[in-house]
Design brief:
By secondary structure, the chain is mostly helical. The protein contains 7 helices and no strands. The protein is globular.
Length: about 190
């Protein structure tokens, strides 16, 4: 039963990404290419680390958290309407994200690899979190709300609760929730 919930979560997340890609093509969403490229790498690393430590179906949402951003990154390369300027802050965060990926590559410990993958993903995500906070009109909620839903489905598939099983999905819920808050905070607190 829980496998179907995880598959449902992956389908929901993919539909959110397709909606976001449509917004990217139309220029309603302006993804930061540094974030979306790096977001595609860290979860895939987290996926392989989790699989190497014995995680099976619970890793599908983590994989989707890497595959879906890769789609956004690719489509953003071809959409002139979705241009977003990359700044020095983006490069600094990108550096830390890549540095964490390098640290992952030299470790053979799955849990340490997952922690580095989370740090890498967070370093990349802070760029979009800042952008969503300052310019919420450049983001749409679809990939983040469906990302929360997909990551939550991981918890239904966990049989043995170990950090390797739940850390990355818990982080994904947290980060997507933060970005959603940044997008909607003005609408929530300063209703006109």
């Amino acid at each position: 039963m829980w496998k179907y919930i995880v598959i449902l979560g992956a389908i929901v997340q993919l539909s959110g990404i397709f909606y976001y890609v449509k917004d990217v093509i139309k220029g309603r969403a302006k993804p930061n290419k540094v974030t979306w490229l790096l977001w595609s790498i860290a979860p895939i690393i987290g996926t392989f680390a989790a699989i190497s430590s014995g995680v099976r179906w619970a890793v599908l949402p983590v994989f989707m958290a890497g595959f879906a951003p890769l789609l956004v990154f690719i489509f953003s390369l071809f959409s002139k309407k979705s241009y977003w300027r990359i700044e020095k802050f983006d490069y600094v965060c990108g550096f830390f994200s890549i540095f964490a990926l390098i640290l992952w590559a030299i470790t053979s410990q799955p849990l340490v690899a997952i922690i580095f993958a989370i740090f890498s993903d967070f370093s990349a995500g802070i760029i979009t979190l800042k952008k969503a906070w300052l310019y919420p009109e450049t983001e749409t909620q679809a990939p983040y709300s469906t990302g929360v839903f997909s990551a939550l489905t991981s918890f239904f598939a966990i049989i043995i609760w170990t950090p390797a099983n739940f850390l990355f999905p818990a982080y994904l819920v947290f980060m997507n929730g933060l970005i959603l808050f940044a997008i909607y905070r003005k609408k929530i607190f300063w209703k006109e």
